[in-house]
Amino acid sequence: MKREKFSSRLGFILISAGCAIGLGNVWRFPYISGKYGGAAFVLIYLFFLAILGLPIMVMEFAVGRASQKSIATSFNVLIAILLSYFFLYVKFHLQNIFLCQ
Predict the structure, then answer these.
(1) 27-65 as b/e, with b when 16 or more CB fall inside 10 Å?
(2) Which of 20, 41, 84, 101 has the fewest other C-beta atoms within 10 Å?
(3) pTM of this prediction?
């Protein structure tokens, strides 16, 4: 199986910076809040981080795996599919509105 690589050094640097900033938020914010008496808020924060973050992460993995493309082009494919369903939905309901009158 062929291993994937970054196409440029800039891409690797931007991904690394994004991960570092995200991890800084996840680790530093609860520490500072807990230090100044916000431990209950930290527990609620971590609960909602898991509840909202895990489904979004799973959705991104599923979109990437299903489209077999890069992240930018996979969401372009997803948007095209969703727009086609939206237009079919609107067309169906408009037909029902005008035919039922």
Answers:
(1) eebbeeeeeeeeeeeeeeeeeeeeeeeeeeeeeeeeebe
(2) 101
(3) 0.45
